[in-house]
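Entry type: protein chain
Record version: 2
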Amino acid sequence: MLIYDLANPQELLGFVRNIPFSQFTLDQFLPVETLNDIEYRFTRSDLIDQEIAPYRAWDAEAAIGSRQGLSRIMGEIPPISKKIRLGEEQRLRLRSLQIGGDTTDLVNQIFDDSALMTRSVQGRIEVARGRALYDGKFVVNENGFVQTLDFEVPGGNRVVPGTLWSDTVNAKPVDDLRAWVDAYVAVNGFKPGYALVSTPIVTNLLKNAEIRTLSATIAGTPGLVTRSALDATLVEFELPPLVVYDAFVQSGGSRVRVVPSGHLVFLPPPDQGLGSTFMGITAEALELAGAGQITTQQAPGIISVVDKTFDPVSLWTKVAAVAIPVIANPRMLLI
């Protein structure tokens, strides 16, 4: 029996690519873009807009336009993978022989392990997205792989509040947000679409004296505003809506946040291209495609494979990807 016959590669492929991880949502801002390659390429624009066209006299020559300053960025997409040994393989195989060759339990365990490893790989990619959005960089120094890619967020797009919002008495978050929106518009020509925040930030805003005063009614000033009242205040001042993100992953034996709890990031509206998460072709996918287990068109993206070693005899389930998040338009981030 070919080891790949234990679990249909096509079924495994569809399975790992469609597992919903509801807490990992940063791909809505850096959507996945698959490539038939292991290198990424993107174009960064150095100018905001084309100069407006001038009027001219009849029969006069049209003004000559200039092309936007463009930077072509390219690099290699790094691999990421994790595998797990099926420690119960011998017992499961023995049981399959006892019940007439039924390998259902073994196959189910392979799919369960694929789900575990997929979460591990997707979690690491999500951490990379978070670092890109909250720090403007892709930084890796692990397992002998070292790479730093600075997306060059302008210095003016890194701001701090006049008073930390944890000081709920003296902080002026509405004033801060209005100033930051003005700064964002000055650089991009449009308002931010979202403000990505954590629950602790929202909690501070609900307690904030300025917010409570703005939410006051004839009945008086509330001691704590509701989330709906906070959202209404932001709408009233034409500020971007808050998107709460609180995902955690396991790292170094501890539960850690994907992104820091004390940061806020302005993100562009959906119709503006902030960046992508490039996913290329893994070596594992090339092997499967070469063996006719999957098609060439299916090769790009995350993939799960089953492998066997004989010293000692072991069955391994591995999930692999070649992935990197990139910020193509760093002006659209305000951190």
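Comment: The chain has eight helices and 14 strands.
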